[in-house]
Amino acid sequence: MxxxxxxxxxxxxxVSCDALVVGAFAGDGGVSLSPQAAAVDAAxxxxxxxxxxxxxxxxxxGNVAIVxxxxxxxxxxxxxxxxxxxxxxxxxxxxxxxxxxxxxLGDNATVVASSLHSIDRDGDGASAAxxxxxxxxxxxxxxxxxxxxxxxxxxxxxxxxxxxxxxxxSVLAEATTLARxxxxxxxxxxxxxxxxxxxxxxxxxxxxxxxVLEEDELAERGFGGIVAVGRGSENPPRLIELRYTPHAxxxxxxxxxKGITFDSGGLSLxxxxxxxxxxxxxxxxxxxxxxxxxLSRLRPNVEVIGLxxxxxxxxxxxxxxxxxxxxxxxxxxxxxxxxxAEGRLVLADLLAYASEQGADAVVDAATLTGSIMxxxxxxxIGLFSNNDAxxxxxxxxxxxAGERVWPMPLYDDYRSELDSEVADIKNVGSRWGGxxxxxxxxxxxxxxxxxxxxxDIAGPARAESDFHEVAKGGTGVATRTLLAWIEGRSS
Length: 491
Prior knowledge:
The protein is of the alpha/beta class. Helices cover 33% and strands 22% of the residues. It contains 16 helices and 20 strands. Helix 9 (224-230) runs antiparallel to helix 12.
């Protein structure tokens, strides 16, 4: 169970808890304490500032110092979290990053956050702080024989933190946690059928409509890409459709997620090292399911359809072969030259299907290319779009959600690299600009005049180590960006 977040108007130096969290700022003149930290320091007769000075605490974002009170205050210890430059303290990502303290305090049952949220001048601080604390305390311990998860049971915010803001932050964190859990689940237990079952459970809990198409129906209805990618596995593919329909909706959008529950590369087999993390190749699908799970609580006035193409890409005598031609939903054909470029094959079906639904915008999220990591590193999402207004909306949504997005180009003259001698298009071009070529492939399946954006999350979908509020492993990235975008559409 996630920690319970409550509020109180108690003075920080008088509240009883296992750990009291206060903030400090970095500056040219050294560390400066927040007003709440200063009150605690006064109660300790300067002991807090003396400790920070003696240990050369820098107060950079993410720095944490834990100081025992030795019985001099009701709180057993003080956790000082660095908030960086005080002039930049209005940035919500700093508050989310302060959630790193929850990881440091995982052995404490009761944690009090003393007014960290108040440093945000726009009033959304409590929401961001709640996200940070809940996500910072995340652990995936389901398969540990001796799990050492966070012991935090309750987090208390002081100084009139908005309950509505805390509730919103909690919802966003829970949606991201769901996406993390799905991404971290081993492929032996999370395959297309079980992912579909989990999506049905989410729909039942959140009041969503859920439809699942199995292999025979996928073939009958022409979803040739999903069928081809999944036919090498004994675990057949699924198409998952979730639908949120508010009363008198003001618009309609579609989210699409790549749900490759394990990617061996197929007959174009990956090497062993690059296969180790391929249970996370369904990170885009996890983000879509996570986002859909939150809609009934956030209640945006927008109809939202979530589509996830779930398949296992593994080699067998039935696998799609290099040189095969696939007929996708809608009739476009593609020549498969590399079976490890399978994500675009399943997304192609869903983009063509989504283009028939009359949506105002379509956004897909996928761990699509290693090339985007070469361009942007491991912490940034590559954003491609055929619509400038939609691109700007998603950039703004990502900024407000604390996720890093960078717009990428769709160069029309690169499209010729995907010309095929035997089909309408081939699934790979040269090694250069691979993320752009993948996006150009997807664009071929987007209907005329359909506003579309593609989020290549291959880098940030998995973290190699803990940082700020992000835990090592599946990150649930794009979940909060998609929700912020939908809320923006609603308003």
